[in-house]
Amino acid sequence: RRSSMEEAKSDLVSVLSSLEAHWHVLEAEVIEINNDVDFCEQCLRKYGEWFNSPLQYLKELKRTKKNKMKEIIRTMEAFNSNLQGGKKLVKALEKQAPVSVLHAPAAPAAYAGGDDASLMVGSGFRSHVIKPVER
Questions:
Q1: Which segment, 2-16, 33-47, 78-92, 104-118, is predicted with the most confidence on average?
Q2: Rounded CA gap, 81 and 83, in Å?
Q3: CA atoms of 116 and 72, how far apart (whole Å)
Q4: Which one of 15, 33, 118, 120 is most buried, by most CB atoms within 10 A?
């Protein structure tokens, strides 16, 4: 089973990759719409008002797609901003107490069972049983 940190990384990569893919599709669609707008404007000049309605439709479609592209940019900027904020926080925390001097267990504690309420901690290769202090 993957850890929640690995799942979060996987989700983040997946979301960013999806956003980038959608951006490229929208960009290609906008280029195509621009070509169609140019053609429609030529037809409007050449054949008259019959091409006004399709031209307006294409302009609205382009506006919608560009707004989606702007939303993708805002989302990507928010990801970047959060990442930069996280890096600053880590740097500040490292100055106060570097991770190398923190004394956290290598693996999470697990209840070993039995009547003495002891905890078992360790990495799988070695484990230590921590017994409660007698008072």
A1: 33-47
A2: 5
A3: 56
A4: 33
- Condensed to tens digits (0 to 9), the pLDDT of residues 84-133 reads 999 999 999 988 877 666 655 555 554 444 454 444 444 444 444 444 44
Coil, strand, or helix at residue 108? coil
CA distance 70 to 32: 18
Tokens linked to 16? 């960013």
Cα–Cα dist 53/61, whole Å: 12
Which one-letter DSSP state was computed for residue 126?
A: S
79 in Cβ contact with 44 (< 8 Å): no
Residue 56, token pair as written in the block: 């307006």
Would you state the structure tokens that stand for residue 106, as one six-digit string? Answer: 């290598």
Q: β-strands 110-113, 127-130: how paired?
A: unpaired
| pTM reported for the whole predicted model | 0.64
